[in-house]
Amino acid sequence: AMEVLSSVEEELPMVTDPRIRIFTQLVKSRTLISAGDLERLQIEVKKGIEISLYEGINDFLGDLYNIRGISEAMFGNYKVALDFYNISIDAFRKSDREFEMVKPTNNIGNLYNEIYGRPKTALDYYYRSYEISEKYGLTSMQATFLNNIGEVYFTLQDYESAKEYLLKATELGKVTGDKRLSFLSTVNLGMV
User: How do residues 78-100 score in pLDDT, each as one tens digit?
Assistant: First the structure.
């Protein structure tokens, strides 16, 4: 992936279409998350946001703000991450890809659950993510949110509810062919 990124960077100065430049920044940012290059990620995602705002092109702003939130969380700047996740939600709400709000909404739930130790608040965000995914028919994502809900109920020691949601996640994972999620949900079920 980094080789492809290098070749893209060589060609980028010749690209004049701002939408392509913004999309390239988004792809670079996603690649840098995968590579774990957080320093460069911060630079590239900021560039993408700056170009978007300067050019008045909002097509990828939700994605870029979500990635900015992820990078801030990875640096331990959780409050700043929450701010960027919320900005991402607003950007997706104003776009033609409102369904993408599930990503930053779920990320907020993760922060409340894993960092702030507020599982009930996390549960609210996971339910919102599930409802959005259900509304837009994002079946594969629904299983992830059901698993997250089940994990929170387990944390809250509501084992019946945990079992209910983890079973749903496991079944939906099988239906969608998501072996990783089916395995994770099954492991979680084993703890209930």
Answer: 999 999 999 999 999 999 999 99
